[in-house]
Amino acid sequence: MNTYYNPEDLAKFGTMGEEAPQLWDSFMQYYGAVFAEGALTAREKSLIALAVAHAVQCPYCIDSYTQDCLSKGVDEEQMTEAVHVAAAIRGGATLVHGVQMKNIVKKLEL
Amino acid sequence: MDIREEFGKLTQIPDFEDSVEDKDLLMTDKMSVLQINVGRLCNLACKHCHMEAGPNRTEVMGRDVMEACLEVYKNWGFSTIDITGGAPEMNPDFRWFVEEAVKVCSHVMVRTNLTIMLEEGYEDLPEFYADHKVEIICSLPHYKAKNSERQRGSGTFDKSIEVLKKLNEAGYGKDPELVLNMVFNPGGAFFPPQQSAIEREYKEHLGQEYGIVFNNLFTITNNPIGRFGGFLMKTGNMESYMTKLYGAFNPGALPGMMCRSQLSVAWDGSLYDCDFNQAVDMPVETKETIMDLRDRPYKKRKIRFDKHCYACTAGQGSSCGGSTA
Q1: Distance CA B102, CA B90 (A)
Q2: What pTM was computed for the model?
Q3: Nearest by CB to A43, which of B144, B147, B197?
Q4: Cross-strand bridge partners of residue B2
Q5: From the candidates A72, A79, A81, which should be mutated to test the interface with B, based on the most B CB atoms within 10 A?
Q6: Chain A to chain B, count of Cβ pairs less than 8 Å apart?
Q7: Number of independent structural domains in chain B
Q8: Domains of chain A by range and CATH?
Q9: CB atoms within 10 A of CB A29
Q10: Which of A82, B117, B249, B253 could make an S-S bridge to B325, C-beta 3.0–4.6 Å?
């Protein structure tokens, strides 16, 4: 079945460097530095990436960072909590925009 | 299922030997560890067990083979005797063998599943081990019950914790002469985390939640053979797991591969370059047995490899003693 998302396409990520090698190299260098051990551990960064992957709903990133988390000793319970963090922020962001709705209602209603 | 036939079908993964540029690394070096698998009988049947050990296995090493092991140990200049199984404690000659081994070797280690020490007739083993200053390497797949029991079966976690407490009471993990090490292996088709990081986590959790102390934690990459290999085949994960292992091939892990410095003896005296080769029935090239070696000096041997060996060279490297690179 044709679909916009194919698991095999993840391995073709590097082809994005074909027409813009310098930009790609810069991005990869930055990407590598971001995920290296720093003030946060590589494990903590992987969990943040997993949560963000769910928030931006990127199936490639979800696949990659689920595997990366497992390889860093993160278990399903911890990953589930991270996904809830993403869900809470998304849900909270939706709800807090309700204040805008209320402001407009207040301004317009008699 | 012949797992080596399955490896042959994975033509996109090169033969292991072709990935090794320095051909000297295909030979053994100085021998240090004599690893003796005293049988496949076990009180558990863990999902990741490469030996496919369990309560119904009947292969058990006899005393004649053990005697030959001790003789070769003395002649070849090894420094460690590493006793494994199955549950090695279930071999009827186990205690005799340990007593004899500690007479000739100052570093005897036993790989235990812990839970056996709660079974009738085995309850005094913590004291037995402590009296003989045997180093203990125990398998505890995870510090959380749920994750651990997914591999080893329900009820095994609490039993393991109970035995770990008994070992601590006997001085293990506290007395510098009584070393208690643990083995971590991933609960699926993925790599282990960095050894030092997961050791820290284990120490925190086991210490805070159960008051348990231990010395070191060793991470082992799951080898795609035995029951774990069967799981990979059944779930359609074999190709992707092998690709992952090959993709993480680290030439820096080659010099420290355990096959270069150890000899693995099976219950019947047959010899292997490592325990994994034993599990896939790939004996040493000469087909010698431990009995044949009684009066033969050590000679470097060519190691036998297959694609499962990529598990020992992926990323931080892996061996029975943890990461190698």
Answers
A1: 19
A2: 0.87
A3: B197
A4: none
A5: A72
A6: 27
A7: 1
A8: 19-108 (1.20.1290.10)
A9: 10
A10: B253
